[in-house]
Amino acid sequence: MKGLTQRQRDILRFIRDHSVVEGYWPSIRNIQDHFGFRSTNSVVGHLRALEKKGYLERPRHQARAYRLREPLPFEEPPSPAPAGHQAVEVVEIPILGNIAAGYPDQVEPAGEVGSLQVDAFTARQRRQHRTFAIRVRGESMIGAGIQDGDTVVVEAREPKDGDIVAALIDGETTLKRFLQPAGHTPYLKAENPDYPELYPVDELVIQGVATSFVRKL
After folding, report:
1. Out of 19, 27, 176, 189, which one is annotated catalytic?
2. Which CATH architecture is the domain 92-214 placed in?
3. Is 115 in the active site?
4. I want to staple 208 with a disulfide (CB 3.0 to 4.6 A). Which of 31, 60, 99, 156 is the partner?
5. Active-site residue, 53 included
6. pLDDT per residue over 11-27, tens digit each?
7. Torsional sign, CA 118, 93, 8, 33
8. Which position among 115, 140, 189, 216 bears the catalytic label?
9. pLDDT tens digits, 162-183
10. Is the pTM of this model over 0.85?
């Protein structure tokens, strides 16, 4: 790793191992906390330096994404990767606040409050659809594996029957499963028997379809 400082070597190792083991790129906050930097500006500076030195790259037309170049000239091998593992392409998705996964409430996404950096496969982004992330509050979707505190990646598109959606029902937001029986009014179903099904009185607006989620351990 010619031309790198020891700290840049350590950061590159951390990024590589985190991407292989966890399956997604560590956030700037993850890197800051791991190395004890006083601010995220220090992390950004190191990432830009690694990009300039050729260890990271940005795919064309994806200003907020990085690609980790592999193989990297490390002294020791990384943790085992899946067969056929290639470069890890990472995308940065804006986090737009919280959403209730319980009883609907008035909390709605209101501007970007942070970002989530994940590998492109986890994000499952499609260029024609806007993608964002929302932090989950509540336990009504635990049957679908989504827990309180998870961050859900949402694609702004029309839902299909059975999709998990971020929805606005009669002016209140919630994360639920969208069901549309033939010939009947669509409604929302929880994945926890302690919570009721939700039928709109006036309006049901689907804000997006959940495609994946990330859990902070």
Report:
1. 176
2. Ribbon (2.10)
3. no
4. 156
5. no
6. 888 887 776 666 667 77
7. negative
8. 140
9. 999 999 999 899 999 999 998 8
10. no
